[in-house]
């Protein structure tokens, strides 16, 4: 049987709800911190670099700052906004400091000689690539959080990142339903 070329192609686009937690600035910063620490400690262990022995403590500090932000957000005191801004500043400084140390680790890994073991080299390259991608996303979250909490700017929804794990997620409002976090999907039929 001879195969024929299609005479028409149909495209259909639709929106699918994504499975993410509610994206607060502090939870996104904590997600970024958690992922950066996990990846950089794995990379350090793989390459034999030191300097990440206290990764559990660094995560613990980030979680404590996140809880302080949540507690300040629930309070009804007069100085609520000032406390929130101060706590967000502390969490931002912590995450940005960890991100800078991750960059230094990436530079040190790049300066190392390639491993003779092919499998170890593949794992190292994969971890390096993943860490670079997560650093870029975490920097984006830091930027949007700084703009919103420290500078008082309203960040447009098109510029926001709603999830580090599903960066394609957008805020879509359909009719009278409440805002949902969704991603685009396309279907092609021949």
Give structural notes.
21% of the residues are buried. The protein has helices at residues 25-47, 55-74, 80-111, 118-150; strands spanning 10-17, 170-172, 180-189. The chain starts with 9 loop residues before the first strand and ends with a strand. The protein is flat. With 190 residues, it is mainly alpha-helical. It has a domain at 25-128 and 143-154. The model has no long low-confidence stretch (mean pLDDT 86). Strands 1-3-2 form a three-stranded antiparallel β-sheet, with no helix packed on it.
Topology:
Elements: E1 10-17, H1 25-47, H2 55-74, H3 80-111, H4 118-150, E2 170-172, E3 180-189
Shape descriptor: flat
Order of helices and strands: EHHHHEE
Round the Cα radius of gyration to an integer and report it: 21 Å
Main sheet: strand order: 1-3-2
Kindly state the mean pLDDT as a whole number?
86
Question: Between the first and last Cα atoms, what is the distance in angstroms?
Answer: 18 Å
Main sheet overview: 3 strands, antiparallel
Strand content: 5-15%
Structural class: mainly alpha
Q: Report the uncertain regions.
A: none
Annotation field: number of helices: 4
Number of strands: 3
Portion of residues in helices? Answer: 55-70%
């Amino acid at each position: 049987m001879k195969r024929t070329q299609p005479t028409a192609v149909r495209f259909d686009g639709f929106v699918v709800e994504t499975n993410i937690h509610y994206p607060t600035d502090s939870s996104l910063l904590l997600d970024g911190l958690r992922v950066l620490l996990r990846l950089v400690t794995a990379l350090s262990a793989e390459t034999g670099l030191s300097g990440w022995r206290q990764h559990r403590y660094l995560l613990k500090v980030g979680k404590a700052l996140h809880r302080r932000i949540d507690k300040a957000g629930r309070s009804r005191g007069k100085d609520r906004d000032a406390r929130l801004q101060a706590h967000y500043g502390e969490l931002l400084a912590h995450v940005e400091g960890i991100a800078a140390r991750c960059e230094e680790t990436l530079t040190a890994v790049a300066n190392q000689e390639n491993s003779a073991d092919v499998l170890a080299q593949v794992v190292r390259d994969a971890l390096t690539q993943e860490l670079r991608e997560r650093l870029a996303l975490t920097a984006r979250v830091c930027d949007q959080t700084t703009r919103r909490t420290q500078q008082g700017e309203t960040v447009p929804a098109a510029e926001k990142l709603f999830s580090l794990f599903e960066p394609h997620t957008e805020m879509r409002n359909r009719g009278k339903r409440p805002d949902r976090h969704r991603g685009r999907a396309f279907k092609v039929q021949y």
